[in-house]
């Protein structure tokens, strides 16, 4: 078990550990003797062992609501949990978000550790303190900032992940490559594409850490998303969410939509003389190398623009896009929807 780094978010610190094996993660957790309650679903219960007291919840976004939070809290109360006891999320972003939120309100805040088991959760959802649940069809409407005390990373669970879920995470990793201060992550992705696509455990171990370091560098400077720095992590998401929302293209995964959105943002950046053609093409090529589809036949542009206008990140009626000037230099620009039409078709 390696202690990789600490992520400091105002008054809270997340200790980040990494190990190739899940057993050593469980061993580490059981070195301390507070009570622990493991939150799993049917796909992630395979990653724990007989030592673990569990609550199983249904898999996927459909479980991300207050009833699940109350169920977890009720199970902890039955076990006479105190604030010093520990909730442990073993799952994707959904389980991390729900468990973090349940822990945050249990007796005004209990301990929580994350063992993220999807690539997206490892490189994104597990670090940064955003916890919560959906409410009345609005994603993440209820929630708060409550960073996990411990985050355990391992490439082992990624081996059973579906290709679609794996690609969701890869979309975020490639996005981080653009936002990184230097091109270490880009070079790693570019030089090791075959091993990464074939999920070589050793290569993945480093990839996850390089990617998470990028997220850390943004969130530590803007722990509660009040400084505008964290907004840059939405690169590709404004373009991509509107694409995902379009009914006729609903088969597109989140990762595919983000990848397409990042490249649309790059084309827009180049066209507005913000970045060079070389920079735009270098990253476009990286997305192609990873098999992302960059062309969708959006015939109903009115519908696309309607979804853009609903983007929850808009401010004072303007839609805000993250564009790129250069490696690690995002810039947030308000644009009318119609101005970006050339980049989506
Ligand atoms: N808190 C944050 O900062 C943050 C950031 C990004 C996304 N999110 C949230 O994350 C959620 C999406 O997370 P996700 O993409 O991980 O989806 P998810 O949590 O729904 O997991 C996807 C599916 O994969 C299954 N699964 C998980 N690990 C597996 C494994 N190792 N092998 C086989 N199957 C496995 C799950 O059971 C589920 O069916 C959304 O709710 C989103 O809002 C939060």
Quick take:
The chain is α/β, with parallel strands linked by helices and 345 residues long.
According to CATH, what is the class of the largest domain? Mainly Alpha
Main pleated sheet: 7 strands, mixed
Helix content: 40-55%
Q: Which fold does the CATH topology of the largest domain refer to?
A: Dehydroquinate synthase-like, alpha domain
User: Strand-residue fraction?
Assistant: 15-25%
What does the overall shape look like?
A: globular
Please state the second-level CATH architecture of the largest domain.
Up-down Bundle
The number of strands is 11
Number of helices: 12
Q: Helix and strand string, N-terminal first?
A: EEHEEHEHEHEEEHHHHHHHHEE
How far the N terminus sits from the C terminus, by CA atoms, comes to: 48 Å
Structural class: alpha/beta
Number of domains: 2
Radius of gyration: 20 Å
Q: Could you list the spans in which at least 5 consecutive residues all have pLDDT below 50?
A: none
How are the SSEs placed, and which strands pair?
Elements: E1 2-9, E2 12-18, H1 22-29, E3 36-40, E4 54-56, H2 66-78, E5 86-91, H3 93-105, E6 111-116, H4 119-125, E7 130-135, E8 138-145, E9 150-153, H5 163-179, H6 184-191, H7 193-197, H8 201-219, H9 237-245, H10 254-271, H11 277-289, H12 301-309, E10 319-326, E11 329-335
Parallel strand pairs: 2-9, 3-4, 3-5, 5-6, 6-9
Antiparallel strand pairs: 1-2, 7-8, 10-11
The protein binds nicotinamide-adenine-dinucleotide (NAD).
Nicotinamide-adenine-dinucleotide binds next to helix 3, helix 4, strand 8 and helix 5.
């Amino acid at each position: 078990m390696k202690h990789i780094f600490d992520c400091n978010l105002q008054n809270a610190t997340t200790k980040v550990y990494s190990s190739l094996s899940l057993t050593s993660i469980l061993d580490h957790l059981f070195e301390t003797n507070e009570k622990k309650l493991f939150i799993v679903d049917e796909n992630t219960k395979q990653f724990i062992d007989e030592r673990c007291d569990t609550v199983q919840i249904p898999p996927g976004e459909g479980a991300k609501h207050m009833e699940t939070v109350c169920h977890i809290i009720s199970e902890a109360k039955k076990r006479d949990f105190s604030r010093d006891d520990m909730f442990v999320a073993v799952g994707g972003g959904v389980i991390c978000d729900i468990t973090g939120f349940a822990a945050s309100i249990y007796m005004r805040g209990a301990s929580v550790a994350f063992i993220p088991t999807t690539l997206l959760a490892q490189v994104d959802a597990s670090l940064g303190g955003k916890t919560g649940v959906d409410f009345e069809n609005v994603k993440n409407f209820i929630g708060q900032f409550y960073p996990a005390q411990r985050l355990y990373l391992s490439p082992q669970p990624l081996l059973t992940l579906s290709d679609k879920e794996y690609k969701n995470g890869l979309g975020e990793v490639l996005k981080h490559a653009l936002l990184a201060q230097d091109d270490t992550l880009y070079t790693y992705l570019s030089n090791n594409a075959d091993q990464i696509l074939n999920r070589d455990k050793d290569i993945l171990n480093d990839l996850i850490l390089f990617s998470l370091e990028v997220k850390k560098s943004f969130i530590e400077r803007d722990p509660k998303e009040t400084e505008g720095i964290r907004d840059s992590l939405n690169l590709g998401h404004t373009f991509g969410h509107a694409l995902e929302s379009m009914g006729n293209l609903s088969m597109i995964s989140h990762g595919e939509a983000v990848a397409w959105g990042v490249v649309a943002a790059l084309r827009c950046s180049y066209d507005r003389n913000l970045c060079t053609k070389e920079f735009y093409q270098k990253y476009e090529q990286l997305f192609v190398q990873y098999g992302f589809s960059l062309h969708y036949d959006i015939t109903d542009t009115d519908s696309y623009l309607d979804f853009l206008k609903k983007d929850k990140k808009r401010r004072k009626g303007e839609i805000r896009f993250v564009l790129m000037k250069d490696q690690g230099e995002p810039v947030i620009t308000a644009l009318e929807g119609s101005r970006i039409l050339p980049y989506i078709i």
